[in-house]
Specification:
This protein is mostly helical and 277 residues long. The chain is built from 14 helices and no strands. It has helices at residues 2-12, 14-22, 29-61, 68-82, 87-90, 97-121, 125-129, 134-156, 160-167, 170-195, 204-225, 236-243, 246-270, 272-275. The longest helix is centred in the first third of the chain and has 33 residues, at 29-61.
Length: 277
């Protein structure tokens, strides 16, 4: 099933951009729809399903028994609702009302699916992280929180009033993509590879690097998502403060993330065991 999303994304995503560009349609609604299309099946499709599957694999390898019935129900709910959930990405435009309802329902079912998944495996998190550094345990928590928040935000975006605010604000869209790619995928993969001793996180440099990454990620997400209050009169004073040197703050905490990842990478590069792999 994972291959279904991969091929769907590959065939009808980036390739369509080349065709549209050759037709001089860059910047059109169709061109933007194509970008949303492949992004949707990338972060909602094979990225998400691959990482959720890796977590289940890790539980099985650890000799723990999880509720397979619940996880299968979760998978089919998420799988069947991902395709129509693409409508959430284009529902800010004028589309038929029945498609708006489908988008809203798909957002709701996706939220139910991820809740079922987390309920099925959350009791194993302590066992999976008992030999891990504190920051690695936090990365697993951050990954779970990010994927849950992702589906909550997608569900909320099904409301037309919210959708109009979100999709006209590029910062919020970027914040959402970063929530998935950095919060869920990157944090989850660092945790998973660390449990397999393929990444080393027990040195001070590695731990401090990951702490810097997490701090940078959280602050930049807050700065990006707070833009939702831009057009709310009661928050005008607060938003004036936020807009003061807004891009400078984003740059500083983005550099903080980069510095953290560089520290973590240097640990891997100069680790003796890593060199011998």
């Amino acid at each position: 099933m994972l291959l279904y999303y991969f091929y769907f994304y590959l065939l009808f995503g980036p390739w369509s951009l080349a065709v549209l560009a050759s037709k001089k349609m860059i910047g059109t609604d169709l061109y933007r729809d194509a970008i949303y299309f492949y992004l949707h099946f990338q972060y909602n499709g094979w990225f998400t399903f691959a990482l959720l599957g890796l977590f289940l694999w890790l539980i099985e390898k650890s000799g723990l028994s999880f509720n397979k019935k619940l996880t299968k129900i979760s998978f089919w709910i998420l799988f069947c609702s991902t395709l129509p959930a693409y409508l959430l990405s284009v529902s800010f435009k004028e589309i038929p009302s029945n498609l708006v309802y489908i988008a809203f329902i798909s957002g709701f079912t996706q939220l139910i699916g991820i809740i079922i998944y987390i309920l099925a495996i959350v009791r194993f998190t302590k066992s999976l992280t008992q030999n891990s550094a504190g920051i690695i345990r936090f990365l697993l928590l951050l990954s779970f929180l990010s994927i849950e928040l992702k589906y909550i935000l997608q569900f909320i975006s099904g409301f037309p009033e919210i959708n109009q605010i979100v999709f006209i604000n590029r910062d919020i869209v970027i914040g959402f993509i970063h929530l998935v790619m950095l919060g869920f995928v990157t944090s989850g993969l660092i945790f998973w590879f660390s449990t397999q001793n393929m990444l080393f996180s027990k040195t001070k440099l590695a731990r401090y690097g990951l702490i810097l990454f997490v701090i940078g990620f959280i602050v930049t997400e807050l700065l990006l998502f707070v833009q939702v209050f831009n057009n709310v009169p009661s928050f005008s004073g607060f938003m004036d403060i936020v807009r003061t040197q807004y891009h400078i703050r984003l740059l500083i905490f983005t550099i903080l993330m980069l510095a953290g990842i560089m520290c973590f990478w240097l640990t891997q590069l100069y680790n003796k065991d890593f060199k011998e792999m």
